[in-house]
Amino acid sequence: MKYNANTFRFFTLVISLNFMLFIIVGCSKNEENEDTEPANKNPTMINDLIPQKAFEILDSLNMPIVEGDNPPDVSGTYIVNPNELMRSTVENDNIGENFPDYFLSFKSPNEGSNSFKTTTVCEPFELDGTADISFIQGSENAFSVFTVMETTDQINNDSFISVEVYTGHLTDEGIQYLTNASIMLNDHGDPNDHYIEINEGRMFKDGNNFSDKSGF
Asked: Can you point out the beta strands (E) in the chain?
C-alpha cells in the first residue's frame, strides 16, 4: 500500500519525523547530499545524545554527515514532499517508494548554543514528533542536525522514540538535498504492530531535491 499525502494544514509545532520511518507503508527515491561524508566524528554533546549503535547504523546506511562548528541558522518550517526511501536495513522495504509527506520545523537555536527544538507533523496520519534537544553542526550553508525524537500516533494512541538525523544545504527559499535517517530506539512494545524493529533504520530524501520553506 502506498501513502501519498499531498494536502497539508499547518500545525504550529512541526518536526518530528519520523513517522516516515515507522508507518508500515512507504516509499522513496534516492540522491545523496554533496560535500558531506558518512557518520561519525562528532562533538561530545552529539555523542552523548546519540547511542553508538545508532552511529553504526548511520554508517551502514551511508548517511551523509556534515562536520564543522559554523552551521547556518536553519530556523523555520519546511515541507518535505515527496518523501522518498533511499536506503533501509528493514527486510522487504521497497527502495524508491514514497512515505508520507510532512512538515519539518526547527525552532530558533538558543543564542550562543547549537542546541534547539525540532518537531515534525504528518497531518493526514496524525503523527506528531517532538525533540526538545537537537544539536546542529556544519559549515557555511551545509549542516547536519542530530536529535532523539518522540513521535505520537494520535489515531492508534501509541508512540515511539527514534534517532533522527537531517542533512542538507540551506538556501533563502528552503533546504536543498535534504536527507533524513531514522533509527528506532524504543517502540514501547509496539502494541499495534505498526513499527519497525528496534535498531532498524531507514534513510529518506526529498524527492524534488528541495524542501520549500513554509510561510507559516
From this structure: 37-38, 64-65, 69-70, 76-80, 83-88, 98-99, 102-106, 115-122, 127-139, 142-153, 158-170, 174-186, 201-206, 210-212
| pTM score, whole prediction | 0.80
- Three-state DSSP class for residue 49: helix
Rounded CA-CA distance 24/63 in Å is 22
Q: For residue 197, which of 43, 53, 38, 46 has the smallest C-alpha distance?
A: 53
d(CA 58, CA 182): 9
In a 3-state reduction of DSSP, which class is residue 44?
A: helix
Q: Using CA atoms, how far apart are residues 44 and 128, in angstroms rounded to an integer?
A: 28
Return the HEC string of 1-42: CCCCCCCCCCCCCCCCCCCCCCCCCCECCCCCCCCCEECCCC
Cell of 39: 557518520
- The model's pLDDT over 104-149, given as tens digits with 9 standing for 90+, comes to 999 976 665 678 899 999 977 788 999 999 999 999 999 999 999 9
How far apart, in whole angstroms, are the C-alpha atoms of residue 126 and residue 124?
Answer: 6
Q: Smallest Cα–Cα separation from 43: which of 69, 79, 10?
A: 69
Contacts of 184 (CB under 8 A, 6+ apart): 21, 22, 160, 161, 162, 195, 196, 197, 198, 199, 200, 201
Asked if residue 19 lies in contact with residue 151, where contact means CB atoms within 8 angstroms, the answer is yes
Count CB atoms within 10 A of the CB of residue 92. 5
